[in-house]
TrEMBL record:
The keyword Zinc-finger is assigned to this record: no
Transmembrane regions listed in the UniProt entry: none
Name the UniProt record assigns to this protein: glucan endo-1,3-beta-D-glucosidase
InterPro entries given in the database record: GH, Glyco_hydro_17, Glyco_hydro_17_plant, X8
GO biological process: carbohydrate metabolic process; defense response
Region forming the signal peptide: 1-22
Amino acid sequence: MTRESWEGCMLLLMALLASASGSFVGINIGTDISNLPSASTIISILKTQMIKHVRLLDADRQMLTALANTGIEVMVSVPMDQLLKIGESRSEAANWINKNIVPYLPATNITYIAVGNEVLTTIPNAALVLVPAMQFIQSALLAANLNFQVKVSSPQSMGMIPKSFPPSTAAFNSTWNSVMYQFLQFLKNTGSSFMLNAQPYYGYTRGNGIFPIDYALFRSLTPNKQIVDPNTLFYYSNMFDAMVDAAYYSMQALNFTGIPVLVTASGWPSLGGANEPDATIDNALVYNSNLVSHVLNGSGTPSQPNIPINTYVYELFNENLRPGPISEKNWGIYNPNGTAVYTLNFGSVNESNDTVPSGLVGVFCVANSSADSTALKESLDWACGPGSANCSAIQPGQPCYESDNIVATASYAFNDYYHRTQANGGTCNFGNTAMITSVDPSHGSCIFAGSMGSNATTSDGSTTSGTIGPTVDGSQLQLLEWCCIHIVPLVLSFGFAL
Ligand SMILES: *[C@@H]1O[C@H](CO)[C@@H](O)[C@H](O)[C@H]1NC(C)=O
Ligand SMILES: *[C@@H]1O[C@H](CO)[C@@H](O)[C@H](O)[C@H]1NC(C)=O
Ligand SMILES: *[C@@H]1O[C@H](CO)[C@@H](O)[C@H](O)[C@H]1NC(C)=O
Ligand SMILES: *[C@@H]1O[C@H](CO)[C@@H](O)[C@H](O)[C@H]1NC(C)=O
Ligand SMILES: *[C@@H]1O[C@H](CO)[C@@H](O)[C@H](O)[C@H]1NC(C)=O
Ligand SMILES: *[C@@H]1O[C@H](CO)[C@@H](O)[C@H](O)[C@H]1NC(C)=O
Ligand SMILES: *[C@@H]1O[C@H](CO)[C@@H](O)[C@H](O)[C@H]1NC(C)=O
Ligand SMILES: *[C@@H]1O[C@H](CO)[C@@H](O)[C@H](O)[C@H]1NC(C)=O
Ligand SMILES: *[C@@H]1O[C@H](CO)[C@@H](O)[C@H](O)[C@H]1NC(C)=O
Ligand SMILES: *[C@@H]1O[C@H](CO)[C@@H](O)[C@H](O)[C@H]1NC(C)=O
């Protein structure tokens, strides 16, 4: 089987899986950037990453135009500075809809309007206009006959839930009980979702050491660190689930059930100031990779196992104009010039057989091919010596041996070291000769740590390993085989449309 048909099949499989599990990972596109890339550049990044859902923090005309006919679903936002006048005037709300929504549909698939962001916790003075603003927007949609196409909600911060652990006892700050009651009634009546910005980075850093970082990063917890809700006896393997459940229980405390939580922002900063040691590329990569596979797995939270947790990763670009500490400007996967801060695979659907996703599946530490070869050799010697990487596979006669390829050889050693030590603070640096990638360097029988690793058998009896791009787990393998046996020949007979 050719490489092209294999990849075509994987893409097809991805599409099938996405629709089967019903859960999705989207991304936030913030624009507090001095050199904002053009809308078409942004779209091409989204396409490369196969991202199908975006959250805009405004209703930018150029973005909404560029998103037309892309198949990407769009959440637009009513910016905070327009909230007040919309909440005070039905006609302002109608104007807003007629200007920012109506002209773009149906070519641009706008499915949600987020009214403001964290309104109650950031501008409490606007609390009384929040629900009216949502109602006026909803009426305007109804008048435009768009109320079935577009849903209305408003993202809340975890700051609304003063004591979120244990989740079963969580409740919204009672100062806002009457607003929240109306808010939830609105969501219930309109079939909308509860939008939550769930940031374990803050839960962890503000927890002052109460929670282990592994809990925030979706990494396995040792038995003595397991986190159990004493009332429900639900086991929380990660803080993200605990936050989402805290929102469910807070709604329940006001007697609301059946409103799904939609996570409108979750991520991890890749860089911080001297007092922000946990904002690192490694942690950002681990958090976001695990978040993606956790969400795409399709299972919900311990309290709501049947409701997938759709999530918008925060965020596409580093926003250099955002106020606050250094970390605040470094939540992006990409630099504004379009280069990746680190390589995140949005399509990964592999989970380890563990109940907790393994930290680094699909993430590799490889030698930078532009690095100086003397420096690479020194780093290689260090990795295989003091670094205690297992370098047996790169010895003569072994699968990864390549006598004249220092980049390939060092890559194997760097990656082995990184996978052994990452959970305990090991990094992918090696004197700036190494870099992180999601492209699996495995080839033939040379399998890199973190690779899907298993040789999938394809219909023509050949094998593949070191899959590039999306990976699948064992339970999906049968579907994959089905796909390759039934779909690829079909496609071939139609002139290789993939
Ligand atoms: C827009 O998104 C919705 C929700 O996923 C989907 O059902 C619909 O088919 C999409 N519409 C278009 C025109 O793509
Ligand atoms: C609840 O919200 C009010 C108003 O913003 C605030 O003053 C108070 O400190 C909050 N309570 C808690 C426990 O966070
Ligand atoms: C929720 O319902 C229970 C039982 O009907 C009632 O006792 C309680 O007061 C209600 N709580 C709220 C916040 O409405
Ligand atoms: C892109 O931006 C990053 C971060 O500012 C910088 O390190 C990098 O050199 C830039 N790359 C190019 C090609 O301009
Ligand atoms: C799968 O589970 C078994 C038994 O717990 C364990 O030995 C093995 O290492 C696991 N494999 C992976 C890839 O996590
Ligand atoms: C999702 O994860 C759960 C537990 O982590 C696992 O039991 C289940 O098989 C996974 N489902 C899929 C479709 O991978
Ligand atoms: C690779 O090394 C070159 C030369 O030192 C450097 O300019 C480049 O930024 C490095 N690439 C990465 C991804 O670290
Ligand atoms: C080192 O890797 C080889 C395979 O490349 C494996 O057979 C061997 O058991 C590993 N040794 C250790 C100590 O992990
Ligand atoms: C993958 O297949 C190759 C070629 O058939 C074989 O040599 C190798 O041992 C296999 N690797 C694994 C991890 O099964
Ligand atoms: C997912 O990837 C891991 C790490 O490569 C692999 O060991 C595991 O078998 C895969 N999961 C399943 C269920 O195949």
